[in-house]
Amino acid sequence: GKGAHAISGVVGSLPGGHVTLFLFALMSVVFMATTFDSTSYALASCATEKLEAHQEPARWHRLFWAFTLVILPLSLIYIGGLESLKLAVLISALPLVFVYIMMAVSLFFSLRDHK
């Protein structure tokens, strides 16, 4: 899309052009890999029953969550482009508004009672 061309245009115009663009792409890949790794680890840890604090979740469980994290947005983009992805993000984020409101109220009462 236009955003990808804008990013590559801006990064490519920096001093060192192609080298800077290569380093930006490499850092982006490393960032995404570490994000998916830590997220899949956290999801597998939460979804594994009777997991002790010193234990790690099964590798297949981490791989399942990693593939799920990759396949879900790709399938949404394939089915309906970015519009369906935007709608899915909006629908899934809407209930969090109520959770954040309850957290703010709880924090207010906790701070008020803590003297």
Span of the ends, CA to CA:
54 Å
Whole-number tally of structural domains = 1
Main pleated sheet: none
Low-confidence stretches: none
Tally the helices.
Answer: 3
Tell me the series of helices and strands, N- to C-terminal.
HHH
Helix and strand composition category: mainly alpha
Strand content: under 5%
Number of strands: 0
Helix content: over 70%
Oligomer category: single chain
What does this protein look like?
- The protein is mostly helical and about 120 residues long.
- The chain has helices at about 1-10, 15-45, 60-115.
- The model has no long low-confidence stretch (mean pLDDT about 85).
Keywords for this structure?
0% strand; single chain; 84% helix; 115 residues
Describe the protein's topology.
Elements (H helix, E strand, L loop, with lengths): L1 H11 L4 H31 L11 H55 L2
Helix pairs in contact: 2-3
Give a quick summary of the entry.
By secondary structure, the protein is mainly α.
